[in-house]
Write a structure and sequence with these properties.
The protein is 39% helix and 13% strand. The chain is of the alpha+beta class. A four-stranded antiparallel beta sheet has the order 2-3-1-4. Helix 6 crosses helix 8.
Length: 243
Protein backbone atom coordinates (compact mmCIF):
# COMPACT_ATOMS: atom_id res chain seq x y z
CA UNK A 1 0.00 0.00 0.00
CA UNK A 2 1.14 3.54 -0.75
CA UNK A 3 1.03 6.07 2.06
CA UNK A 4 1.60 9.83 1.93
CA UNK A 5 3.11 11.77 4.82
CA UNK A 6 2.35 15.50 4.71
CA UNK A 7 4.01 17.79 7.25
CA UNK A 8 3.07 21.43 7.65
CA UNK A 9 5.17 24.09 9.33
CA UNK A 10 4.19 27.34 11.05
CA UNK A 11 5.80 30.75 11.39
CA UNK A 12 8.28 32.60 9.21
CA UNK A 13 10.34 29.46 8.59
CA UNK A 14 7.43 27.18 7.96
CA UNK A 15 9.14 25.21 5.18
CA UNK A 16 12.10 24.33 7.41
CA UNK A 17 9.74 23.37 10.22
CA UNK A 18 7.77 21.11 7.92
CA UNK A 19 10.93 19.31 6.84
CA UNK A 20 11.95 18.79 10.47
CA UNK A 21 8.55 17.31 11.34
CA UNK A 22 8.63 15.09 8.25
CA UNK A 23 12.13 13.76 8.94
CA UNK A 24 11.24 13.01 12.54
CA UNK A 25 8.14 11.12 11.40
CA UNK A 26 10.15 9.10 8.88
CA UNK A 27 12.75 8.32 11.52
CA UNK A 28 10.08 7.02 13.89
CA UNK A 29 8.46 4.87 11.22
CA UNK A 30 11.65 3.28 9.93
CA UNK A 31 12.89 2.62 13.46
CA UNK A 32 9.52 1.05 14.20
CA UNK A 33 9.93 -1.52 11.42
CA UNK A 34 11.34 -3.81 14.07
CA UNK A 35 8.44 -3.03 16.40
CA UNK A 36 5.57 -3.82 14.04
CA UNK A 37 3.35 -6.67 15.32
CA UNK A 38 4.75 -10.08 14.45
CA UNK A 39 2.63 -12.33 12.25
CA UNK A 40 3.32 -16.03 11.66
CA UNK A 41 0.91 -17.57 9.13
CA UNK A 42 0.53 -20.98 7.52
CA UNK A 43 2.77 -20.08 4.57
CA UNK A 44 5.66 -18.59 6.54
CA UNK A 45 5.42 -21.43 9.06
CA UNK A 46 5.90 -24.08 6.37
CA UNK A 47 8.59 -22.00 4.68
CA UNK A 48 10.67 -21.47 7.83
CA UNK A 49 10.32 -25.11 8.85
CA UNK A 50 11.36 -26.38 5.40
CA UNK A 51 14.17 -23.86 5.10
CA UNK A 52 15.64 -24.97 8.42
CA UNK A 53 16.19 -28.45 6.93
CA UNK A 54 18.62 -26.99 4.38
CA UNK A 55 22.22 -27.03 5.59
CA UNK A 56 22.77 -23.34 4.88
CA UNK A 57 19.86 -22.44 7.17
CA UNK A 58 20.29 -25.02 9.93
CA UNK A 59 20.66 -22.13 12.40
CA UNK A 60 16.95 -21.50 11.89
CA UNK A 61 15.90 -24.89 13.27
CA UNK A 62 15.85 -23.93 16.99
CA UNK A 63 14.36 -20.49 16.29
CA UNK A 64 11.28 -20.97 14.12
CA UNK A 65 9.33 -23.06 16.72
CA UNK A 66 9.76 -20.17 19.16
CA UNK A 67 7.78 -17.96 16.78
CA UNK A 68 4.71 -20.02 17.75
CA UNK A 69 4.93 -18.92 21.38
CA UNK A 70 3.97 -15.37 22.34
CA UNK A 71 6.52 -15.47 25.18
CA UNK A 72 9.47 -16.33 22.92
CA UNK A 73 8.33 -14.87 19.57
CA UNK A 74 10.01 -11.47 19.89
CA UNK A 75 13.36 -12.90 21.06
CA UNK A 76 13.39 -15.39 18.20
CA UNK A 77 12.48 -12.66 15.67
CA UNK A 78 15.32 -10.46 16.96
CA UNK A 79 17.82 -13.28 16.43
CA UNK A 80 16.48 -13.94 12.93
CA UNK A 81 16.78 -10.22 12.14
CA UNK A 82 20.45 -10.23 13.09
CA UNK A 83 21.17 -13.26 10.89
CA UNK A 84 18.96 -12.55 7.88
CA UNK A 85 17.00 -9.27 7.45
CA UNK A 86 15.17 -10.68 4.42
CA UNK A 87 13.67 -13.47 6.52
CA UNK A 88 12.83 -10.98 9.24
CA UNK A 89 10.83 -8.91 6.73
CA UNK A 90 8.49 -11.90 6.25
CA UNK A 91 7.33 -11.60 9.84
CA UNK A 92 5.93 -8.08 10.03
CA UNK A 93 4.83 -5.00 8.11
CA UNK A 94 7.73 -2.98 6.71
CA UNK A 95 7.98 0.70 5.74
CA UNK A 96 10.28 2.14 3.07
CA UNK A 97 10.60 5.74 1.93
CA UNK A 98 10.18 6.14 -1.84
CA UNK A 99 10.73 9.89 -2.20
CA UNK A 100 10.53 13.21 -0.37
CA UNK A 101 9.86 16.75 -1.54
CA UNK A 102 9.11 20.20 -0.18
CA UNK A 103 6.06 22.13 -1.40
CA UNK A 104 5.87 25.78 -0.22
CA UNK A 105 5.19 25.60 3.52
CA UNK A 106 4.79 21.80 3.59
CA UNK A 107 6.90 18.71 3.00
CA UNK A 108 5.76 15.33 1.66
CA UNK A 109 7.08 11.80 1.56
CA UNK A 110 5.69 8.75 -0.21
CA UNK A 111 5.99 5.48 1.67
CA UNK A 112 5.93 1.95 0.33
CA UNK A 113 4.27 -0.05 3.09
CA UNK A 114 4.43 -3.83 2.71
CA UNK A 115 1.68 -5.03 5.00
CA UNK A 116 1.09 -8.61 6.04
CA UNK A 117 -1.67 -10.34 4.02
CA UNK A 118 -4.12 -10.54 6.91
CA UNK A 119 -3.68 -6.92 8.02
CA UNK A 120 -6.26 -4.47 6.71
CA UNK A 121 -5.14 -1.10 5.40
CA UNK A 122 -7.16 0.58 8.17
CA UNK A 123 -5.26 -1.33 10.86
CA UNK A 124 -1.89 -0.49 9.35
CA UNK A 125 -2.79 3.17 8.84
CA UNK A 126 -3.90 3.47 12.47
CA UNK A 127 -0.59 1.98 13.63
CA UNK A 128 1.43 4.36 11.46
CA UNK A 129 -0.44 7.37 12.83
CA UNK A 130 0.15 6.17 16.37
CA UNK A 131 3.88 5.76 15.70
CA UNK A 132 4.20 9.21 14.08
CA UNK A 133 2.26 10.82 16.95
CA UNK A 134 2.61 14.35 15.56
CA UNK A 135 -0.35 16.65 14.90
CA UNK A 136 1.77 18.51 12.31
CA UNK A 137 2.01 15.37 10.14
CA UNK A 138 -0.89 13.85 8.23
CA UNK A 139 -0.73 10.14 7.37
CA UNK A 140 -3.07 9.16 4.53
CA UNK A 141 -3.50 6.47 1.93
CA UNK A 142 -2.55 7.61 -1.55
CA UNK A 143 -5.30 7.50 -4.19
CA UNK A 144 -5.42 4.39 -6.30
CA UNK A 145 -5.73 0.66 -5.94
CA UNK A 146 -5.28 -0.85 -2.49
CA UNK A 147 -5.20 -4.65 -2.40
CA UNK A 148 -7.62 -6.34 0.03
CA UNK A 149 -6.48 -8.21 3.14
CA UNK A 150 -6.56 -11.97 2.53
CA UNK A 151 -5.19 -15.16 4.03
CA UNK A 152 -2.45 -16.99 2.09
CA UNK A 153 -3.50 -19.64 -0.41
CA UNK A 154 -3.45 -23.08 1.26
CA UNK A 155 -0.76 -25.59 0.37
CA UNK A 156 -3.20 -28.51 0.25
CA UNK A 157 -5.16 -27.84 -2.94
CA UNK A 158 -5.19 -30.01 -6.09
CA UNK A 159 -3.42 -27.19 -7.96
CA UNK A 160 -0.59 -26.98 -5.43
CA UNK A 161 -0.21 -30.77 -5.41
CA UNK A 162 -0.06 -30.86 -9.22
CA UNK A 163 2.59 -28.14 -9.31
CA UNK A 164 4.67 -29.97 -6.73
CA UNK A 165 4.49 -33.27 -8.62
CA UNK A 166 5.75 -31.59 -11.79
CA UNK A 167 8.66 -29.89 -10.02
CA UNK A 168 9.64 -33.14 -8.28
CA UNK A 169 9.45 -34.98 -11.60
CA UNK A 170 11.51 -32.47 -13.60
CA UNK A 171 14.04 -31.76 -10.83
CA UNK A 172 14.14 -35.05 -8.88
CA UNK A 173 17.50 -34.49 -7.19
CA UNK A 174 17.93 -30.79 -6.49
CA UNK A 175 14.48 -29.26 -5.96
CA UNK A 176 13.07 -28.24 -2.58
CA UNK A 177 9.43 -27.18 -2.92
CA UNK A 178 8.32 -24.71 -0.25
CA UNK A 179 5.47 -22.19 -0.12
CA UNK A 180 6.89 -18.66 0.01
CA UNK A 181 5.20 -15.38 0.89
CA UNK A 182 6.43 -12.64 -1.44
CA UNK A 183 6.99 -9.21 0.09
CA UNK A 184 5.76 -7.55 -3.11
CA UNK A 185 2.17 -6.55 -3.73
CA UNK A 186 0.18 -8.84 -5.99
CA UNK A 187 -3.04 -8.71 -8.01
CA UNK A 188 -3.56 -12.26 -6.73
CA UNK A 189 -5.03 -10.72 -3.57
CA UNK A 190 -8.20 -9.87 -5.48
CA UNK A 191 -8.63 -13.49 -6.58
CA UNK A 192 -7.87 -14.84 -3.11
CA UNK A 193 -10.42 -12.38 -1.74
CA UNK A 194 -12.96 -14.15 -3.98
CA UNK A 195 -11.91 -17.56 -2.65
CA UNK A 196 -9.61 -18.61 -5.50
CA UNK A 197 -6.19 -20.07 -4.57
CA UNK A 198 -3.33 -18.42 -6.47
CA UNK A 199 0.34 -19.43 -6.60
CA UNK A 200 3.43 -17.98 -8.19
CA UNK A 201 6.24 -20.17 -9.47
CA UNK A 202 9.80 -18.95 -10.19
CA UNK A 203 9.72 -20.06 -13.80
CA UNK A 204 12.46 -17.86 -15.22
CA UNK A 205 15.68 -17.81 -13.24
CA UNK A 206 18.33 -15.14 -13.78
CA UNK A 207 22.00 -15.90 -14.15
CA UNK A 208 23.83 -16.25 -10.80
CA UNK A 209 25.40 -13.01 -9.64
CA UNK A 210 23.35 -10.78 -11.92
CA UNK A 211 21.19 -8.03 -10.47
CA UNK A 212 19.32 -6.35 -13.31
CA UNK A 213 15.80 -6.22 -11.87
CA UNK A 214 13.86 -3.29 -13.37
CA UNK A 215 17.00 -2.16 -15.19
CA UNK A 216 17.17 -1.13 -18.84
CA UNK A 217 19.16 -4.30 -19.47
CA UNK A 218 17.03 -6.67 -17.38
CA UNK A 219 17.33 -10.13 -18.91
CA UNK A 220 17.23 -13.87 -18.34
CA UNK A 221 19.14 -16.67 -20.01
CA UNK A 222 17.61 -18.33 -23.10
CA UNK A 223 18.05 -21.69 -21.36
CA UNK A 224 16.03 -20.42 -18.39
CA UNK A 225 13.27 -19.20 -20.72
CA UNK A 226 13.06 -22.58 -22.45
CA UNK A 227 13.03 -24.52 -19.19
CA UNK A 228 10.51 -22.15 -17.60
CA UNK A 229 8.06 -22.47 -20.50
CA UNK A 230 8.35 -26.25 -20.37
CA UNK A 231 7.81 -26.28 -16.61
CA UNK A 232 4.70 -24.11 -16.93
CA UNK A 233 3.33 -26.27 -19.76
CA UNK A 234 3.80 -29.45 -17.74
CA UNK A 235 1.97 -27.81 -14.82
CA UNK A 236 -0.94 -26.98 -17.11
CA UNK A 237 -1.10 -30.58 -18.35
CA UNK A 238 -0.82 -32.01 -14.83
CA UNK A 239 -3.51 -29.69 -13.50
CA UNK A 240 -5.85 -30.51 -16.39
CA UNK A 241 -5.37 -34.21 -15.70
CA UNK A 242 -6.02 -33.61 -12.00
CA UNK A 243 -9.40 -32.11 -12.81
Amino acid sequence: MRVMLTARGTGSRSSQGAIVHLNEAISRLTRANADQPLRFNATTRRFFRGLSNIEEYDWLAPLWPKLENALTMQTAANQIRMRDPDLDALLHTTVYVENEKGVNDSAEAQLDVRRMPSDTKEEVLARLRQIVNDTAVEVNLMPGSQTPATDPSPAMTPLYSAMRRVIDRIYPHDAVVLPFMSRNSSDASYLRWRGMPVYGVPLFVREPGESRVRGNDERIAVKSLDEGVELLWQMVLETAGEN
